[in-house]
Design goal:
Elements (H helix, E strand, L loop, with lengths): L9 E5 L6 H13 L17 E6 H6 L4 E2 L1 H5 L14 H4 L6 H9 L4 E6 L7 H5 L14 E2 H9 L8 E6 L14 E4 L5 H22 L1
Parallel strand pairs: 1-6, 1-7, 2-4, 4-6
Antiparallel strand pairs: 3-5
């Protein structure tokens, strides 16, 4: 569900399997680390993001439905070990949030972006779809089941002004318990013409590179 009037800053990114959703997440992290994120926007519109975290639902499955705090969830960024994310490990290695940093995050959600990649792989979709997070307080400092924390993040019930990006395959994206997203984006992939153009540019640039190296 898309609602431009909704106060949540959740963004749904959908795409077929293998279309590049995880690569998109990597690029967001990389662009942020290089101060290139959202540079196409007018300067007055660019949020001052001081904290950007990437979590995969594949990781969160390992936590099952243990009761944890948001701080403990975010610290999971330091355990990225999937080959898809090795390019970002240097960003996340020191992801050890102390008390003062976490309090800053809670009090300044506008400076936070959290990316949740691979909702279609999450084993606790029914928990989110059933709105069971309502059994727990809207407090980022409190322990609650992992699925409840994810649901509250997506629905803007904690860190309300933070940007939360969730990626999913199209079919599973409908199983978010009626979550209202600020925006919905589809990664459509290349058309046949764009594929041809990309291949031509790739080999042209490769030839130039080889000529410079010889």
């Amino acid at each position: 569900m898309i609602d431009d009037q909704e106060s949540t800053n959740s963004i749904l990114v959908v795409g077929k399997a293998g279309i590049g959703k995880s690569l998109f997440c990597q690029k967001v992290i990389r662009d942020w680390a290089n101060n290139k994120l959202l540079q196409a926007l007018e300067s007055t519109e660019i949020p001052n993001l001081k904290f950007v975290y990437l979590l995969t639902f594949r990781q969160l499955n390992l936590l099952e439905n243990n009761c944890v705090t948001l701080r403990e969830i975010l610290n999971c960024c330091s355990t990225l070990d999937d080959k898809l994310y090795t390019a970002m490990i240097f960003i996340c290695l020191k992801c050890n949030i102390d008390d003062s940093t976490f309090e800053y995050i809670v009090k300044h959600p506008k400076e936070v972006m959290i990316i949740l990649d691979g909702y279609d792989e999450y084993s606790q979709q029914d928990y989110i779809a059933g709105n069971l997070e309502e059994q727990h307080p809207n407090d980022a400092r409190r322990k609650m089941p992992v699925a409840a924390l994810c649901s509250k993040l997506i629905k803007g019930k904690i860190l309300k002004e933070a940007i939360v990006i969730i990626t999913s395959r199209p079919d599973e994206s409908n199983k978010t318990g009626g979550s209202r997203f600020k925006r919905c984006v589809e990664i459509a992939g290349f058309s046949s013409e764009q594929v041809k153009e990309y291949i031509e540019k790739y080999f042209k640039n490769k030839k130039k590179y080889e000529e410079r190296c010889t």
